[in-house]
Amino acid sequence: MKDHIQQLLEQTVDRLKAQAIIPADAAPRLQVDRTKDKSHGDLATNLAMMLAKPAGKNPRELAGLIIDNLPESTLVAKTEIAGPGFINFFLDAGWLGKQIETIASDDRANVAPIAAPQTIVTDYSAPNVAKEMAVHHIRSTVIGDAVTRTLEFLGHNVVRANHIGDWGTQFGMLIAYLEKMENESAADMDLSDLEAFYREAKKCYDEDGEFAERARNYVVKLQGGDEYCNAMWRKLVDITMAQNQAIYDRLGVSLSNDDIMGESLYNPMLPEIVADLTKQGLAVEDQGAKVVFLEEFKGKDGNPMGVIIQKRDGGFLYTTTDIAAAKYRVDTFAADRILYFIDSRQAQHLQQAWLIARKAGYLPDTTTTEHCAFGMMLGKDGKPFKTRSGGTVKLADLLEEAHQRATKLIGEKNPDLQGDALDTIAATVAMASVKYSDLSKNRTTDYVFDWDNMLTFEGNTAPYMLYAFSRIQSIFRKAGVNAAELNGTVVLAHDKEEALAQKLVQFNDAVQGVANKGMPHLMCTYLYELAGAFMSFYEACPINKDDVAEDAKASRLRLCAATANTLKVGLGLLGINTLDRM
After folding, report:
1. Cα-flanking dihedrals φ and ψ of residue 174, to 5°?
2. How far is residue 511's CA from residue 513's CA, in Å, rounded to a whole number?
3. How far apart are CA 124 and CA 162, in angstroms?
4. Is residue 28 classed exposed, middle or buried when 0-12, 13-18 and 19+ CB atoms within 10 A define those classes?
5. 223 falls in which pLDDT band (50, 70, 90)?
6. Alpha helices, DSSP H only, in 224-317?
7. Which of 69, 76, 70, 71 is nearest to 90 (CA)?
8. Which of 169, 262, 294, 341 has the highest CB neighbour number within 10 Å of its CB?
9. Residue 563: enclosing H or E segment and its boundaries?
10. 3-state secondary structure of 580
11. CA-based diameter of the chain, in Å?
12. Closest listed residue to residue 87, CA positions, set 139, 29, 45, 127
């Protein structure tokens, strides 16, 4: 809707330039906003005020010329000039009705695929091998997945990159301990408790000198391509990722083993990267290490900050790996855009790695890199979310607790539900609640985890959203209709009907906002407002009462169908399934 008005204004600007009413080099930023007061129309622009000075005209006079040169559109019923030169657009009710009819029956809720798709790499989740996923991993995982789904929905070629921590000096210790355990048990051991495995391996390394020496030797062998060490390393990766995949599947996250692009993938590139940066004069030797000094970053002394890419002992750093990752994603996928869903504390690290990659020519100007930063996950006390004993909360444990709490909540709401039916609904509500509670918050802020706010049917929560959808399904059941077979003209006779229709045609804007800004909370806010607009409509406009005329009933049922379809598509883009009954 806003896009259409912007296109009309773009064509109008071209016409005015052709008539020499405005200068040919004028390049205004076209902005179309929704009005807060319905009496001022549905949409408004300040274009005339922006162009008045270069055109040498009074803003209201120029607004009149803009209106006179607007191309005809079935979308616009009328235009008005307001205040110092705002142009207000009133949308045509007949056009709105037609849009609702399309939204009700279209499996994309009337969102068209993008005209110029890009290749976009999304880097998210990124757990470590030989460690269980902790609760803090959920932010990167669910935020990244929601944005990825949205980009894919719009038609972009999206490459998921799960940048797992599967390389480093700690793997010598882990291989040595895996060998020790297998020798002692004379069989493949059960690595179900990865935290205990890592803890015991570290203990052996710290307390047993012979074990530590063997571990250090295994690091060298692993990095040299030793077949035995590689097989043991592969076993550790496979066991870890099998556990992680079970969590992804339970959460409804679209990552799979095919999306793993761990640190090990880039390891063979690192010596070449350092050599090339040195050859280009970007990296210099400093106290035995290879360092890139960046004028764009200053140290406390005011001098260019040095970024180490190879340590004195020959080891590489995370920065080196991220430079290689950027190069790989351009060389292998021809990425137009690379999104990193990594916590906000990594901002400087990423900026430095990307700057070095750009200086070296690995990242062309045509490829954008974006840090989709997110804040910390906090408890109600405002401190990092921990167990009562102060330990790290395992993500698997949190999901299980969510399921138990949801089972209790749904059981109390609907005592007739039992067995598999209760478990299915509880599982859907639990995962939806965990995800939606995170996604509904602006990702740039810290997120306070609160069970009570998460699992409530009031406010901007998953249970409320799922209930809104299931309530519409109950309307269809009571009316004895199949939403997919509804027909008839949508007539927006009541102001609540028009308000709901106005909100429905804003869905495309919400989708575009998530895709362009990497912020799923824009979709959550939209869906919450849509559900609220529907509830207001439902209270004011009866549907299944005997005194409702058939044509009005048919129109309102299609409004219901459009709302249900939009809720389902929108929640689906967040990775959340809907329920026909709750």
Report:
1. -70, -40
2. 5
3. 6
4. middle
5. confident
6. 227-251, 263-266, 270-279
7. 76
8. 341
9. helix 550-573
10. coil
11. 89
12. 45
- Predicted model pTM: 0.92
Confidence of residue 194 (pLDDT cuts 50, 70, 90): confident
Q: How many CB atoms are located within 10 Å of the residue 102 CB?
A: 14
Whole-angstrom distance, CA of residue 394 vs CA of residue 400: 10
3-state DSSP assignment of residue 310: strand
Pair of tokens at residue 176: 């040595």
Q: Which residue has the tokens 């395992």?
A: 394
The number of beta carbons lying within 10 Å of the beta carbon of residue 388 is 6
pLDDT band of 191, cuts 50, 70, 90: low
Minimal CA–CA distance to 354: which of 156, 158, 346? 346
Residue whose C-alpha is closest to residue 433's, from 181, 138, 212, 227: 138
Please give the structure tokens belonging to residue 473. 């399904």
Return d(Cα 114, Cα 512) in angstroms, integer: 10
Q: What Cα–Cα distance (Å) separates residue 174 from each residue in 206, 210, 315?
A: 13, 14, 19
Reported as a single tens digit per residue, the pLDDT across 205-214 is: 999 999 999 9
C-alpha dist (Å) from residue 53 to 29, 58, 113, 160, 490:
14, 8, 38, 47, 44
Amino acid identity at 445: T
Distances, alpha carbon 360 to alpha carbons 273, 283, 340, in Å: 9, 10, 20
Q: Whose CA is closest to 45, among 94, 80, 91?
A: 80
**pLDDT value for 301:** 86
Scored b (16 or more CB within 10 A) or e, 537-568 reads bbeebebeeeeeeeebbbbbbbbbbbbbbbbb
Measured over the CA atoms of residue 467, residue 470, residue 476 and residue 482, the dihedral's sign is: positive
> Phi, psi (5° rounding) for residue 224?
-90, 0
| Cα dihedral 481, 485, 488, 491 sign | positive
Q: What does residue 10 show for φ and ψ, rounded to 5 degrees? A: -60, -45
| Residues near 358 by beta carbon (within 8 Å), at least 6 away in sequence | none
Q: How far apart are CA 472 and CA 486, in angstroms?
A: 14
Residues 526-566 have pLDDT tens digits of 999 999 999 999 999 999 998 889 999 999 999 999 999 99
For the cut 60, the answer to whether the pLDDT of residue 188 exceeds it is no
Helix (H, G, I), strand (E, B) or coil at 393: coil
- Tell whether the model's pLDDT for residue 37 goes beyond 90: no
The one-letter code for the residue type at 435 is K
What whole-number distance in Å separates Cα of residue 567 and Cα of residue 441?
Answer: 18
Q: Kindly report the CA angle at 112 between 88 and 580, in degrees rounded to 5?
A: 100
SS3 label, residue 445: coil
pLDDT value at residue 313: 86
For the stretch 29-67, what's the b/e string if a residue is b when 16 or more beta carbons lie within 10 angstroms of its beta carbon? ebebeebeeeebbbbbbbbbbbbbeebebebbebbbbbb
For 286, the token pair is 């400093």
From residue 300, give the alpha-carbon distance in Å to each of 244, 289, 297, 303: 41, 21, 10, 8
Tokens 């009700």 locate to 104
Instruction: Please tell me the predicted confidence (pLDDT) of residue 190.
Output: 56
Nearest CA among 212, 135, 207 for reference residue 170: 212
> Which of 77-86, 176-185, 280-289, 445-454 has the weakest average pLDDT?
176-185
- Cα–Cα distance, 271 to 291 (Å, whole number): 14
